[in-house]
Design brief:
The complex is a heterodimer. Chain A is of the alpha/beta class. Chain A has helices at residues 17-33, 43-48, 53-59, 72-80, 90-94, 96-99, 111-135; strands spanning 6-10, 38-41, 62-66, 86-89. Chain A has one domain. The longest helix of chain A has 25 residues, at 111-135. Chain A starts with 5 loop residues before the first strand and ends with a helix. By secondary structure, chain B is of the alpha+beta class. Chain B is built from eleven helices and 15 strands. Chain B has helices at residues 16-28, 39-44, 50-55, 68-75, 86-92, 105-119, 177-183, 230-233, 237-240, 256-259, 266-280; strands at 5-9, 34-36, 57-62, 82-85, 138-143, 146-151, 155-157, 162-167, 170-175, 186-190, 197-198, 203-209, 213-217, 222-227, 249-253. In chain B, the strands form four sheets. A six-stranded antiparallel sheet of chain B has the order 7-8-9-15-14-11. The chains are: A alpha/beta, B alpha+beta. The A-B interface holds A 10-15, 19, 23, 26-27, 40-45, 47-48, 50-51, 70, 72-73, 75-76, 103-107 and B 9-15, 18, 22-23, 25-27, 36-41, 43-44, 66, 68-69, 71-72, 101, 103.
C-alpha cells in the first residue's frame, strides 16, 4: 500500500479565485476525504528547497492541484522533482473566466464557491483512488 | 497602473501561520495601492511582476521561520523594504498557531497584530546627537581578490565583527567591511525597536543578503535611540560604506568603559581580522 505516501500540492493561489479553490480542495482532501492518507506538500517550501518536500515528490506519487491553466504547482513538481502522478486544473472544473476572478479570503466564500471546492476535491480524491488501485 | 506597495506572503498551506500570511496579504490587497504577489508565480515568471516591483516597495510576510518568502526575494535579489514573520508575532502574543488552519478569535488577533505592524510607521526618533567625524582614515590589507578595510582609530570591535564608535554618551553600531563582503549584496536590514535595552553581546537585529542572515551582536550595552532609516530605501549602503553611511543603530551607552574591556580597538581588530581571513581562507 502506498497510502499516506501520496503527496498533494496546491498552487499558491494568490492570483485568482481558482487558487483559493485549489487550496481549500487540498485541505478538504487532507481533513475530510482522505484524512491520514495523504501528505500535503507546501509549494513555497517546495520551491525554497527546504523541508524534504522535493525529496518526497521524487520518491512518491504526487498530485498537483492548480487554480488556473498556468499550472504553477504541476510545473514546479516537474521542474524540481518528478513527473506528477496526476493533476487537477480547477479552471477546467469551474471555467477559466470564473477561475480567474479575484482571490477570496475563506470567510467571504459562498455556497457556490464551496461547491467548487467539493468538485475539485472529489476530482483529486478520484485520482488518489486510481493511484492506489494501480499500486495494489 | 503600478502600485506603490508590493506584498509577498509565503502562502504556506501546511501550517496555520502560512495561511495567516495569506489572510493578511488579502486584507492589504483591498487597498488599490497594494499589489499582491504570488510567490510561486513570481518564482516561475518574475516578469509578471516586474513593473510593480520597480514602482513599489516590497513587504514580505513569512509564515514561519523557514522564511520561504524572504528566501525567494533573496534568491531573486529583490530588495525588501519591510518584513514581518507571522509566527514571531503570534509568539509575542503568546498564541500557539499549530498546524490546523482555523478562523477563530486567536487567529484574527494575530492577523490584526500583523496588519498593525505593517501599517505602523517607524517610531519617532529624536534628532541624532551623534557627531560624525569629518573624515575617517583606513588601514587595508588584501587576501586573494579581496581588500579589507578597517578604520585607523575610534572604532571598537567584538569578535563577531560588529563595531561601535562613540560620541559622548551616544554611539553608533554597525558591521565591519569583512561582514559586508561575506554577505555580498545586502537586501534587508531588520533593526531593533527604538527604546530597546540590551546587554553587551545581545542580539541587536539582523542584516540579510541573498546568501545569509547575519545577526548583529551588540558590541556594547545600552538603549536603542535611533536606527538608520536611510537603510530602508538603500540597504546597499552597508555594502558601500560599512563604517560610515551604513551604520545600523544609534545607542545610548550604559557603561562603555566596562564593555570596552571585551572589545578590540582598531589596530587589534586589524590583526585579528588578518588572522581570521588567513585561517578561513576567504
Amino acid at each position: 500500500m502506498i497510502e499516506n505516501k501520496i503527496g498533494v500540492i496546491s498552487c499558491s493561489g494568490e492570483e485568482c479565485l481558482g487558487g483559493t479553490i485549489s487550496r481549500l480542495a487540498v485541505r478538504k482532501m487532507m481533513e475530510e476525504l482522505k484524512p491520514g492518507m495523504v501528505s500535503t506538500l507546501c509549494l513555497p517550501l517546495f520551491i525554497a528547497g527546504d523541508g524534504g518536500e522535493r525529496e518526497f515528490a521524487e520518491k512518491y506519487p504526487t498530485i498537483a492541484v492548480d487554480g488556473c491553466s498556468k499550472c504553477c504547482a504541476k510545473r514546479a513538481i516537474e521542474k524540481y522533482s518528478n513527473a506528477v502522478a496526476g493533476s487537477v486544473d480547477v479552471a477546467e472544473i469551474i471555467g477559466e473566466a470564473k477561475a480567474l476572478e479575484k482571490p477570496l479570503s475563506t470567510r467571504n466564500l459562498t455556497d457556490e464557491h464551496m461547491e467548487y471546492v467539493k468538485q475539485a476535491a472529489d476530482k483529486t480524491s478520484q485520482i488518489f483512488d486510481e493511484i492506489v488501485a494501480k499500486s495494489v | 497602473m503600478s502600485k506603490s506597495i508590493c506584498v509577498l506572503p509565503c502562502n504556506g498551506l501546511d501550517k496555520c501561520a502560512g495561511d495567516l500570511s495569506r489572510r493578511v496579504a488579502l486584507q492589504l490587497a483591498q487597498s488599490e495601492e497594494v499589489a499582491l504577489i504570488c510567490p510561486v508565480l513570481l518564482n516561475q515568471n518574475r516578469s509578471r511582476y516586474e513593473k510593480d516591483l520597480e514602482a513599489g516597495d516590497l513587504t514580505v510576510i513569512d509564515g514561519c521561520n523557514t522564511r520561504c518568502a524572504s528566501k525567494l526575494a533573496g534568491d531573486l535579489e529583490i530588495a525588501i523594504k519591510e518584513k514581518v514573520n507571522v509566527s514571531e508575532v503570534a509568539k509575542a502574543l503568546n498564541i500557539k498557531l499549530g498546524v490546523e488552519i482555523r478562523e477563530d478569535e486567536q487567529t484574527q488577533t494575530v492577523v490584526s497584530a500583523v496588519l498593525e505592524k505593517i501599517n505602523s510607521s517607524a517610531a519617532d526618533q529624536a534628532a541624532s546627537e551623534f557627531i560624525e567625524p569629518e573624515s575617517i582614515d583606513y588601514n587595508t590589507f588584501s587576501h586573494g581578490k579581496f581588500i579589507f578595510k578597517v578604520p585607523k582609530a575610534n572604532y571598537y570591535f567584538n569578535e563577531n565583527d560588529c563595531w561601535v564608535t562613540v560620541s559622548g554618551n551616544i554611539a553608533r553600531v554597525g558591521v565591519s567591511d569583512y561582514v559586508q563582503q561575506n554577505l555580498s549584496d545586502i537586501l534587508y536590514v531588520d533593526p531593533p525597536e527604538i527604546g530597546q535595552e540590551f546587554e553587551q553581546f545581545d542580539d541587536l537585529g539582523s542584516i540579510e543578503s541573498g546568501k545569509a542572515v547575519f545577526e548583529i551582536i551588540a558590541p556594547a550595552s545600552g538603549t536603542v535611540v535611533a536606527v538608520n532609516t536611510g537603510l530602508n530605501d538603500a540597504p546597499e549602503l552597508v555594502n558601500e560604506s560599512p563604517y560610515e553611511k551604513g551604520w545600523l543603530v544609534e545607542v545610548q551607552l550604559t557603561d562603555f568603559a566596562e564593555d570596552q574591556d571585551l572589545l578590540h580597538d582598531c589596530p587589534a581588530y586589524f590583526e585579528f581580522l588578518q588572522r581570521k581571513v588567513a585561517e578561513i581562507d576567504v
